[in-house]
Amino acid sequence: MILAARFNVDFIFLSETKCSVKSLAPFFSRKGFKNSTGYDAIANKGGMFLCWSDRVVVDVIVVSPNIIRCNITLVDGASYYLACVYGSPYISSREEVWTMIGNLMQSHKGSYILIGDFNQLESIDQKLGGREVINENKSAILFSPNTPARFVRLMSQPIQVKSSKELGIYLGCPIDVDGRTSTKFNYLLERIQKKISSWKFVSLNQPGKLVLINGILVAIAHHILSLYWCPRRITSKINSLINKFWWCSNTTYKGICWRKKEVLFMHKSEGGLGLKDVASINKSLLMKQSWRFYCNPSLLASKIFKAKYGNDPITLGITGKKIVVGSWAAKILVRAAASFKHHIGRRIGSGDSVSIVQDIWVSNRKIQFRHLEEMQGITKVSDLMTSDRRWNAELGMVLWAIWSHRNDIIFRDVSTDPTSVMTAVQIHVTRWQKATDLVSSHIGERQIEFGKSRPMLLWRLGEISGNQFSSVCVDAACKRRKKKDDTQWEAAVAWALEMMDQQHIQGAVRVFASSPNQAEALAVLIALKKIPPDIPNVVIKSDSSVTISALKCPSKVELETRNIITDIHREAGKRAFVLCIKVDRLNVNKAHLLAVKARKSN
């Protein structure tokens, strides 16, 4: 506006205003240009604005997105034709604008003025900045490690670009990671160390440190952990920094570690503090990427991976196949899937796509046969099923009887006898039917063993209501205190639900008991309280015969345990059916391990 006032300007034209005419008119009106016209910008794109002073007379003819046409009459009476042009930024629309300009010049025979931004170049030299050149500050040339230094200098001089030994970092992630060195991840340690040092003079309690560790320190490395398999040296040092920060805010001092590092990183339900383990998070995030490929085969990345490596990362990992020639990113996805293969269950379904020999479907390894020729015609899991998708028990019995008779022929010099094979098949089928009847009856008063039976120790209350059952195993771990004058037992009780849909209901708690029998009774009582009340039928498995005998006859136990037995009867009366059964130690091993861990945690 200073120039307009100095040179006595009567017209001002603005192109590509990116705003409306009403927003510009008040400003120019205060500067003396009280008359204006123009075309509003659309979605902050384009826009034109033309204003003039009172010294001239302007007759606006047409206002369009690209041209403003008007007649101008100056103070001395001279008349001109004015066309203000804003050329289209799109190449496909430029021809239309130039056609309008050509028609204007042909239709008007008098004097005219043509001004504006035409968005047209006759040569690349007219572009701002000239021809495209290499940005020396943002560019680098990378040579192989075995390239001689003199060749590096000779080849870098013509393009005036500095040489580099690595590709650098893009979006906070190192580009040229190949898994052969851990130096690429050292900056993660520096960032975490710097963040911990910034909290040096902040007074924090333990819950506050827990939030900062899980919410900030571990989150700093999340984008790296989700892309690369971090070396063990890096994850160990990060965990060490977290451990030091937990026990002492100043990382220059080691502090006193009152608990083992494994206890700190253990889940809260298992008696730990719930600190995030960087190595475990690294595997989990990479497994999440692999699982995304497996669940979304229509993704472009999934199609490219499968076309190049033959299958998705999950299938390659659980089948034990490795990528020999491929990128480091592809190898770590398969490696992450392989680390979880013992925790991945495969749904058999119809069994048409599951191979008996090639796939892992029974245990954590493939089934091996000494003589595959004996499996002719039986290659898929579906061959072992009936038409109603049940296991073909008769087929399994026949194969087992043939195999047993074959061993008798080879090792015991028994002559071939098809009758003995059929007799063995009938015996096996009878045993299978007995086992099926036992399972279908849910609970039995006696345990049936093939050929003999023995009484089972159990206690039951109520009658079965419906088909919804909850089976839970309980156990207690006890140890007498070291003081001789103290007769208390230091104990912990644990419970673990065995139903797949209620797998999260498990835990352990430390208790004080006067005897191991009292601790076992407390385990049964606490398990009954932890099971949701909407489950009517409950089966409790315990390896303590004393507890079950006490439930059957409470008057024969000591007073301290008798009160607990009374509470168990009261809790059991709130449900339709409760059964407490004596089992072997192996059947309650999961609860036993939880109880031992809880007892040793303090």
Automatic annotation (TrEMBL):
It comes from the Eukaryota. InterPro entries: Endo/exonu/phosph_ase_sf (IPR036691), RNaseH-like_sf (IPR012337), RNaseH_sf (IPR036397). GO terms for molecular function: nucleic acid binding. This is RNase H type-1 domain-containing protein.
